[in-house]
């Protein structure tokens, strides 16, 4: 069961791309420095806003910095926010959603209200205003804020799942045996939700990467940090669009889109495994199901 | 209903306390600004009158909170700092029509387009159309919106020169209902609208596709087919009609994000709506405007949620029974 999902080509391709970007985030800066001899921060004032060439594969930006080196370095910043934001968001979703579903009653009432509240509050404007008041933020703060405002959807799903598990026989039996509530929740109920939580984590990760990019674009980020978001933002600020410096803002956006697609592929594959109706959506079976229907229609 | 009242109260309270928990407050901001411009300390009398207009941070918190609630009840959202002495509500009224027009239209178009194509893709899931359109849509919806808008601006605005690069209307024309002005609004609006539709319809498409795939397998659809009804009729009257229900709630919720959702669009295109107003107020630390915009956004979101709940009970009788 634990390796069954690897049989889907969607999952394999998706995980492959994600792994590649994770490796890039970990080893990228070292790779760029020592292997390619590129420094993302080095400004070469003699080479300002150069289009891609053999020397600079992705060209240079307005400050004479190598865009390829920046994209590689940006992977670390963006993935860091993505992973940290997803960890915080998923942890909060678990801590709030699972007890709400398991205990029910007054605990559920309070936690569910909190979840619904965060669900309806418009996240982006709220994050924007909070970070606006904070003035001056690092990547870590941004990741924490993104996680803090991004758990409600997951909590709702987990609540529903925990609710159904709490009513299953094995949980009832263990409760009757005198097992303590907290241990039951975390040692018995939670393991049944790992698949769901993993896919939620992926979702949250790409969500955080995108949110960071969006916030950076709106000028809320640490301008000294390099992430794909800050790259696009500085391109925007130097009017790269109006001057046609496409090689500056196209690559970082493509990287985000690629990660997003990879995460979506994995989720697709997992969904198809979990929901047989989606998996059965293959042309052969559809035709088989429909032919008798048509024949019946003609006969009448 | 109770939840929405409680949520509205929580959001209003949050809107009150956030600025007070964070460093910096409106009065301090404007005092700071004035001192920087004039280069000297403010007279105590000036300080006092500023605090009268923008609130005294040292006043009793409960008292401030009450004042704030009374103000809100009168729909008084305060005075803008950067556009002093324009009331915040005036600024909102100026931006709102632009946002409603742009995002309202595109939300409807994206919903109709996405749901329609999604139903067709899900009807013959695994077919030729589905295998091309679904992965393509997945990729499109993974693109960060503002980046796609930038690329669109670069392609169609800069390279091809088909559309203006920023703004919501031709600034040389007088604002009014004249044909030439309306035409310029249309011309300026096409590119932002197209980017919104392009980025939003994928979500509707995939949702509708998956729901259609599921409903197509239901017995009543099989029965309809067995009765010999045409495929089109079965799809429209039986499968799609039920598959569209979850999308319908989504649509009502999306309407709630009309005011706040266009933030990035309006920033990319310098479009004169509410989102752009929030962006500029943020940059200028115009706290009353920030609070006002957030209040408006939150109000529409809550109303839309209420609407979504009621509409869903109307279109799906199964919900009603649960109470």
From TrEMBL, chain A:
Domain ABC transmembrane type-1 intervals: 79-267
Pfam family, one: BPD_transp_1
Keyword Cell membrane listed: yes
Stored PROSITE patterns: ABC_TM1
A GO molecular-function annotation: dipeptide transmembrane transporter activity
Compartments where found: Cell membrane
Gene Ontology CC: plasma membrane
Transmembrane segments: 79-98, 110-133, 139-158, 184-206, 245-270
Highest taxon above the source species: Bacteria
SUPFAM superfamilies: MetI-like
Membrane topology classification: Multi-pass membrane protein
Record's keyword terms, sorted: Cell membrane, Membrane, Transmembrane, Transmembrane helix, Transport
Family: Belongs to the binding-protein-dependent transport system permease family.
Stated name of the protein: ABC transporter permease
Organism: Streptomyces niveus (Streptomyces spheroides)
Automatic annotation (TrEMBL), chain B:
Transmembrane segments: 98-123, 144-165, 185-207, 243-269, 289-315
The UniProt record lists the keyword Transport: yes
Membrane topology field: Multi-pass membrane protein
A Pfam match: BPD_transp_1
UniProt keyword annotation of Transport present: yes
GO terms under biological process: transmembrane transport
Domain ABC transmembrane type-1, first and last residues per copy: 96-308
Keywords: Membrane, Transmembrane, Transmembrane helix, Transport
Any one of the GO CC terms: plasma membrane
CDD domains for this protein: TM_PBP2
Database matches in Gene3D superfamilies: MetI-like
Subcellular locations according to the entry: Cell membrane; Membrane
Family of the protein in this entry: Belongs to the binding-protein-dependent transport system permease family.
Protein name per Swiss-Prot or TrEMBL: Peptide ABC transporter permease
């Amino acid at each position: 069961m634990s390796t069954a999902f690897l049989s889907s080509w969607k999952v394999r391709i998706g995980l492959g791309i994600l792994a590649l970007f994770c490796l890039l985030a970990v080893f990228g800066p070292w790779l760029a420095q020592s292997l390619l001899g590129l420094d993302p921060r080095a400004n070469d004032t003699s080479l300002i806003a150069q289009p891609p060439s053999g020397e600079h594969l992705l060209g240079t930006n307005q400050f004479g910095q190598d865009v390829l080196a920046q994209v590689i370095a940006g992977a670390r910043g963006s993935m860091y926010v993505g992973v940290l934001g997803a960890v915080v968001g998923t942890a909060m979703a678990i801590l709030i959603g699972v007890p709400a579903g398991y205990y029910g009653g007054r605990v559920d009432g309070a936690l569910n209200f909190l979840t619904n509240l965060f669900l309806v509050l418009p996240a982006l404007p709220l994050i924007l205003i909070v970070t606006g008041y904070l003035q001056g933020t690092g990547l870590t703060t941004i990741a924490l804020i993104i996680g803090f405002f991004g758990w409600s959807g997951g909590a709702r799903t987990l609540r529903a799942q925990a609710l159904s598990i709490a009513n299953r026989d094995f949980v009832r039996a263990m409760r009757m045996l005198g097992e303590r509530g907290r241990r039951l929740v975390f040692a018995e109920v939670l393991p049944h939700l790992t698949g769901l939580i993993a896919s939620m984590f992926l979702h949250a990760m790409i969500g955080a990467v995108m949110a960071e990019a969006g916030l950076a674009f709106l000028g809320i980020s640490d301008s000294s940090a390099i992430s794909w978001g800050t790259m696009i933002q500085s391109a925007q600020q130097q009017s790269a669009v109006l001057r046609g410096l496409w090689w500056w803002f196209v690559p970082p956006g493509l990287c985000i889109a690629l990660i997003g697609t990879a995460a979506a592929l994995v989720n697709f594959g997992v969904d198809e495994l979990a929901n047989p109706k989606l998996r059965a959506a293959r042309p052969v079976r559809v035709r088989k199901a429909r032919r008798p229907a048509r024949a019946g229609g003609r006969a009448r | 209903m109770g939840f929405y009242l409680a949520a509205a109260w929580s959001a209003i309270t949050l809107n009150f306390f956030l600025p007070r928990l964070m460093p910096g407050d409106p009065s301090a901001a404007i005092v700071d600004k004035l001192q920087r411009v004039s280069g000297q300390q403010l007279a105590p009398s000036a300080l006092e009158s500023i605090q009268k207009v923008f609130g005294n941070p040292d006043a009793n918190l409960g008292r401030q909170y009450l004042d704030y609630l009374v103000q809100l009840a009168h729909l008084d959202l305060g005075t803008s700092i950067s556009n002093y002495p324009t009331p915040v509500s005036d600024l909102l009224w100026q931006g709102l029509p632009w946002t409603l027009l742009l995002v309202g239209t595109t939300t409807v178009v994206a919903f109709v387009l996405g749901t329609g194509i999604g139903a067709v893709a899900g009807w013959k899931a695994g077919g030729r159309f589905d295998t091309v359109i679904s992965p393509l849509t997945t990729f499109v919806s993974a693109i960060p919106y503002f980046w796609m808008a930038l690329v669109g601006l670069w392609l169609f605005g800069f390279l091809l020169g088909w559309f203006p690069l920023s703004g919501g209307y031709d600034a040389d024309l007088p604002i009014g209902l004249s044909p030439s002005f309306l035409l310029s609004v249309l011309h300026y609006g096409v590119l932002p609208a197209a980017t919104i539709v392009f980025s939003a319809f994928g979500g509707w498409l995939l949702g509708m596709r998956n729901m259609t795939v599921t409903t197509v397998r239901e017995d009543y659809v099989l029965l309809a087919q067995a009765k010999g009804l045409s495929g089109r009729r079965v799809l429209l009257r039986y499968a799609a009609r039920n598959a569209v229900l979850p999308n319908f709630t989504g649509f009502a919720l999306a309407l709630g994000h009309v005011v706040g959702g266009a933030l990035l669009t309006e920033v990319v295109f310098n479009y004169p709506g509410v989102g752009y107003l929030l962006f500029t107020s943020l940059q200028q630390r115009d706290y009353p405007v920030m609070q006002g915009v957030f209040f408006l956004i939150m109000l529409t979101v809550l109303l839309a949620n209420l609407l979504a709940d009621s509409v869903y009970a109307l279109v799906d009788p199964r919900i009603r029974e649960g109470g």
